[in-house]
Write a structure and sequence with these properties.
12 helices; 7-stranded mixed sheet; alpha/beta; 42% helix; binds glutamine; Rossmann fold; elongated
Length: 288
């Protein structure tokens, strides 16, 4: 059989290939993303003139992407980009795909800092740079830095800093080693979306995440799941100003343990918020 040469036959063929792998509405959503990317035919036109011809080269690109979807490659990695906080970010398998719940964390931080004059913010484990860059866009007066242990992630973040033409300093730093970033650095805010999924939770995760996203950015051991929170609090002792504030994304199943850790560090204020799905997902911690 030759390649489908009009939209309706291409669409039917793609749906058939993805049937059984994704449910119908997800298939529809994924294909719409691909059509939007590779075809210059508007959605309205696709619906009203389904017999419209499709060039061979475009059909090939779409079928190649569908082949990757059959192997559960996340659509964001197929296209090399993801949307976060109304902005487009470059992504590849060296970085997590930005999540909608993380937008909610950014919204919280940005809301709290709206009136701050020039807050100094560090995003630990910045990955694609999405949190740091979105904060800098939202709070132009702020000084924003992003750190990561992965050089490969930092290079993706650097691409995104360029793309969005923002001033965000990126540094290579392993929070687990607890070293200084530089002398005299005093931060007002530490933001961190650390790895927090326990190995034992792997069975709950989908193949597109498990087979393609970077495991060091996702997983922690069952024995020490709060390792990164502990390291951030420890490091924060000597780098955060006295009235500094921590913001974290958290594991919904570890709220009790996280609250316990906060009280061991003597933080008197620890606020937990749910994400839009109703899961305990983020936390704001401060001394007073
Ligand atoms: N919320 C992400 C997920 O479920 C995990 C992000 C993280 O570990 N920081 O895939």
């Amino acid at each position: 059989m030759g390649l489908p040469s009009d939209f309706i036959s291409l669409d039917r063929y793609c749906r058939k290939r993805l049937a059984g792998l994704y449910d119908a509405s997800e298939t529809g959503a994924l294909l719409n993303i691909l059509y939007g990317e590779y075809l210059n035919i508007s959605r309205a036109k696709r619906l009203t003139e389904p017999g419209i011809p499709v060039e061979t080269v475009k059909a090939k690109q779409i079928l190649n992407a569908v082949g990757q979807l059959e192997r559960f490659v996340p659509v964001q990695y197929i296209l090399g980009k993801a949307w976060f906080y109304g902005m487009e970010f470059e992504v590849n398998p060296d970085v997590l795909i930005p999540r909608p719940e993380t937008e909610e964390l950014v919204e919280w931080v940005a809301g709290d800092l709206e009136k701050a004059s020039s807050p100094v913010i560090l995003d630990i484990g910045t990955g694609s740079g999405c949190i740091a860059i979105a904060l800098k866009k939202k709070l132009p007066g702020s000084v924003v830095m992003g750190s990561d242990v992965s050089e490969a992630a930092l290079s993706v973040a650097a691409g995104n800093v360029d793309k969005h033409k923002v001033e965000v300093e990126l540094v290579h730093h392993n929070i687990l080693l607890g070293k200084n970033i530089r002398e005299g650095l005093h931060l007002d805010v530490l933001v961190c979306n650390p790895p927090y999924v326990r190995m034992s939770e792997k069975s709950e995760m989908k193949r597109n995440v498990l087979d393609y996203e970077p495991h060091p950015a996702l997983f922690v051991s069952d024995e020490n799941p709060l390792m990164f929170y502990n390291a951030v609090f420890q490091w924060g002792k000597s780098h955060l100003r006295e009235n500094g504030v921590y913001y974290f994304e958290i594991n919904q199943y570890l709220v009790g343990e996280i609250m316990q850790l906060c009280s061991e560090y003597g933080f008197s204020k620890c606020l937990i918020r749910k994400d839009i799905k109703g899961n305990f997902r983020m936390m704001r911690v401060s001394v007073n």
